[in-house]
Sequence to fold (234 residues):
Amino acid sequence: MSTHIGAKAGQIAETVLFPGDPLRAKFIAETFLDDVVQYNSVRNMFGYTGTYKGKPISVQGSGMGIPSLSIYATELIKDFGVKSIIRVGTCGGMRADVKVGDVILGQGSTTDSNVTATTFGTGIYYAPISDFELLDRAYHTAQDLNVPVQVGNIFAADRFYNDEIDMEKLADYGCVATEMESAGLFLIGAKYHVKTLSILTVSDNIVTGASASAKEREQSFTDMMKVSLETGIK
Ligand SMILES: O=P(O)(O)O[C@H]1O[C@H](CO)[C@@H](O)[C@H]1O
Ligand SMILES: O=c1cc[nH]c(=O)[nH]1
Fold:
């Protein structure tokens, strides 16, 4: 048991799917996994281990934002020996052609969070990137499943409600979608030499104002979930 995860040693698989919403973790476990055991309910940040196509895999809620995700990612790695973490998240499309329901693979993540600056000090603008092997696997898995994906730079924002940032300029420089965790996850992956990736579904579009409901965010993004599960067990 760690400070925030009430699992016993050996209860968490080496590969973890990592949605922000703990109810999305519950949905993935109950919908796709066999022989499921719930190992965590501390703070209602649900965590489950089961098997997918006979292979062990865990699903753990991360909460929202880099500070919350960092707690769970660090404990998964340091206290439970996790080797691969795949974020299974929602995001806002930053261009009009990035539509609700589209699946995005995070190649790298730009951020306004201080985590990169406080890790390396003044003048170093570290560029957090995902693990290429996981990215490559997810890309080809999506092709096999006939799920169209876009691959790109994810803007991980510290604030969900934010009119201070020039999102148009970021989009012009290649940012595809915005969410709140990827840069923190990729940074922790680099620190502990653990594989990390973000597989995201567009839940709304910040240019057009299109939006999915909370129920859809929790349950209906099954393409992303299948790509994540297949990537996780390969
Ligand atoms: O749906 P999740 O995975 O929580 O991801 C997105 O949704 C939350 C904001 O509504 C933030 O955590 C953001 O990154
Ligand atoms: O963090 C998020 C998640 C979804 N949509 C956004 O615009 N931001």
